[in-house]
Amino acid sequence: MDITLVLGDNPGPYTGAGNNTYLISGKTPTLVDAATGKASHLDALAAALGSAELTQVLVTHAHPDHAEGCEPIAARWPKAVFRKMPWPERDDRQSVEFQPIADGELIPVGDGVLTTVHTPGHAPDHLCFFDEKDGTVFCADLVVLGSSVVIPISRGGSLTQYLESLRRVRDLSPTRMLPAHGPVIDAPGPVIDGYLKHRQRREDQIVDVLRAGVRQPDAIVERLYQGIRAELRLLARESVLAHLIKLQDEGRVRVDGEEWALS
Ligand SMILES: [Zn+2]
Description:
- The chain is an alpha/beta fold.
- The protein has helices at 39-49, 64-67, 70-76, 88-91, 159-170, 188-211, 217-224, 230-249, and strands at 2-7, 20-25, 30-32, 56-58, 81-84, 98-100, 106-109, 112-118, 127-131, 136-140, 176-179, 253-256, 259-262.
- The strands form 3 sheets. It has a 6-stranded mixed β-sheet with strand order 1-2-3-4-5-6, covered by helices on one side. Strands 7-8-9-10-11 form a 5-stranded mixed β-sheet, with no helix packed on it. Strands 12-13 form a two-stranded antiparallel ribbon.
- Strand 3, helix 1 and strand 4 (56-58) form a beta-alpha-beta unit.
- Helix 5 (159-170) runs antiparallel to helix 6 and helix 7 packs across helix 8 (230-249).
- The chain is elongated, with a radius of gyration of 19 Å.
- The chain starts with a strand and ends with a strand.
- The model has no long low-confidence stretch (mean pLDDT 95).
- Bound molecules: zinc ion.
- Zinc ion (ZN) is lined by residues 61, 63, 122-123, 141.
């Protein structure tokens, strides 16, 4: 596939250096993710398209740094069709009409075909796109090199689903992953294994802390993330809660109000 990285140019605390979007050139010029619609992003996209017309935008999930650019892209390239897996409450926030994509669908892009892989966990509608020919996976927010992915437990996140999604993509034996943030991942297998190990270690630590009689999420954060910066504390709390809910789903912990304990 003929893939051009087009930078979203939207750096920030949650987006790192900003979002990556990918233009796949060919018969069906397709953009993977819309970023936020910065003028510099649209100009870079226009330059990458040259004389071609953008016909399709695949949105990996409804988080604003991936979807907000849909409206300005639609205004500039009126022939483009926008597609994503539905997440009705969130999709309503964008003015464009999304055509639904299902898990396992084969989508013509550029001069090839991508297979959709539903990978919930970070978001319920999260999709990866897999090029079976060369093993490339557009992995969106499933994996970001050098950082761990947020599981927003109060907004549709699920650690249980996220771990299943990581295993599902690893089982595809991808040769490289193109993420929505950060650099290309050239050795996906070991990176995914590292992610799984990291979450397992965190879970073991939380079980140990519970065993020591610490019961409240904030107190668990205090123990596990000593000296954490105030602005990251909420994220750490979400992560601890994500683990507690996974353990609860497995029947290994129970909750009474704000108090968590091993079963
Ligand atoms: Zn996201």
